[in-house]
């Protein structure tokens, strides 16, 4: 089971506002996060998300083995924001996420589901995302999480949807590219930041980065 240790309060740049309907945290402006696909806990597995001011904003810590079936994405106070379960059906896997508020699960119905795609051919995506109550694909993930480069777009066949977030390897101010486990996440102004962060965690599970 993945857990978190409480940390100092998050910076304003990492704040999100609890939304209605399918949303979880629409910030209203573009934001850039640094995602380190490592846990700050010794011998732990997980990831650490930093705000633009360099302070820890969110964190996943898995004290068990890599690839836990239950992962919890939490804020710096230790409150669960998203619970993610890995479900296996033979050779097939999917990831189901539920929203939490005040540390409690809001509903037993998944907020979103991620199904790994073939990523080949016309309209082939690396993964597709459906939202509770929605019809068809709501978002698609294109690229290669194992290579630390991918983008999240609103659902549209052929990859023509609006890009709401992009992930790439982080570069220093002087242009030095850091390791594949240090990422820059750029989230668009109209995107649900909490949803995007949840999808980044799922991508980490897909690529077995944590």
UniProtKB/TrEMBL annotation:
Residues 1-23 are annotated as: Disordered. InterPro entries: LOR, LOR_sf, Tubby-like_C. Belongs to the LOR family. This is Protein LURP-one-related 11.
């Amino acid at each position: 089971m993945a857990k978190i240790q409480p940390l100092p309060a998050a910076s304003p740049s990492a704040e999100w506002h609890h939304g209605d309907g399918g949303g979880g945290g629409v910030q209203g402006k573009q934001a850039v996060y640094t995602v380190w696909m490592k846990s700050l806990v010794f011998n732990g597995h997980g990831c650490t998300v930093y705000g633009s001011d360099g302070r820890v904003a969110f964190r996943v810590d898995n004290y068990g083995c890599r690839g836990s079936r239950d992962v919890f994405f939490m804020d710096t106070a230790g409150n669960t924001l998203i619970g993610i379960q890995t479900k296996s059906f033979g050779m097939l896997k999917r990831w189901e996420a539920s929203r939490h508020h005040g540390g409690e699960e809001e509903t037993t119905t998944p907020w979103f589901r991620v199904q790994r795609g073939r990523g080949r051919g016309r309209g082939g995506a690396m993964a597709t995302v459906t939202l509770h109550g929605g019809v068809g694909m709501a978002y698609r993930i294109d690229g290669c999480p194992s290579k630390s480069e991918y983008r999240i777009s609103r659902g549209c066949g052929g990859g023509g949807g609006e890009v709401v977030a992009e992930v790439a390897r982080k570069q220093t101010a002087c242009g030095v590219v850091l390791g594949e486990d240090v990422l820059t996440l750029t989230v668009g102004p109209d995107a649900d930041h909490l949803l995007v962060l949840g999808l980044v965690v799922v991508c980490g599970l897909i690529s077995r980065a944590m």
